[in-house]
Specification:
Nucleotidyltransferase, domain 5; 5-stranded mixed β-sheet; 29% helix; 27% strand; elongated
């Protein structure tokens, strides 16, 4: 199975090519560079192989549709929708919660800016929690739940004794969560990929 996975929803820009079990991966640890590096990374991953690939050689495209950075989500989803429309490829949309909690019974926390976090517990509903209340929120759940966060998350902010699992920037968790969601939910057409913004962009909230 061959597919390209893109995640620009968080604090990092990730592009992974899964090719018959092998993972080829590029990452920038600054989400503000998404516009600069996204298509560069796609091109490098597709061409730097023994046999260069084109998009039409792929079985599908995958994209993390949110929640997280409004700008990052817009860039990633727009890119995948455009590429899928051009190539007639199907798309696998998955959430950032799916990726962070891969292989864990987790409480996933995603930075929502302005001292807020998007929080989701396993198959529960998405909630918005203030950073100052994150400790109390987490403490409601038993120790079998792992706190799943991005690598930039500062664990010193918390007093919780729960195990903290920081997301690995290796491509394995992005690809693994794609394969898991593929088996659970399957693929959709490009026009069925909906960004998961939750909050309005900062400019609108300031009006």
């Amino acid at each position: 199975m061959k597919f390209l996975a893109i995640n620009t929803a968080g604090k990092n820009v990730e592009v992974a090519l899964h090719m018959d079990g092998a993972i080829h991966y590029k990452c920038a640890t600054n989400a503000r560079k998404a516009n600069e590096v996204l298509f560069l990374y796609i091109d490098e991953l597709m061409t730097n192989n023994t046999v260069p690939l084109t998009l039409t050689d792929l079985d599908f495209l995958a994209v993390v549709s949110g929640p997280g950075s409004f700008t990052g989500i817009r860039i990633g989803v727009s890119a995948v929708r455009t590429l899928a429309q051009m190539t007639n490829l199907k798309v696998l949309p998955l959430t950032f919660f799916d990726v962070l909690s891969y292989n864990n019974k987790g409480i996933s926390a995603i930075d929502a800016a302005n001292g807020l976090y998007y929080v989701k517990v396993s198959d529960g509903e998405i909630e918005i929690v203030k950073e100052a209340e994150l400790d109390d929120y987490i403490s409601k759940y038993s120790d079998e739940f792992v706190l799943c966060v991005e690598p930039q998350f500062e664990t010193s902010k918390l007093s919780t004794k729960k195990q903290v699992k920081k997301y690995s920037l290796s491509g394995s968790e992005l690809v693994g969560s794609c394969l898991q969601e593929f088996n659970k939910n399957g693929l959709v057409n490009y026009d069925q990929v909906i960004p998961l913004y939750i909050r309005k962009p900062q400019a609108e909230e300031n009006l």
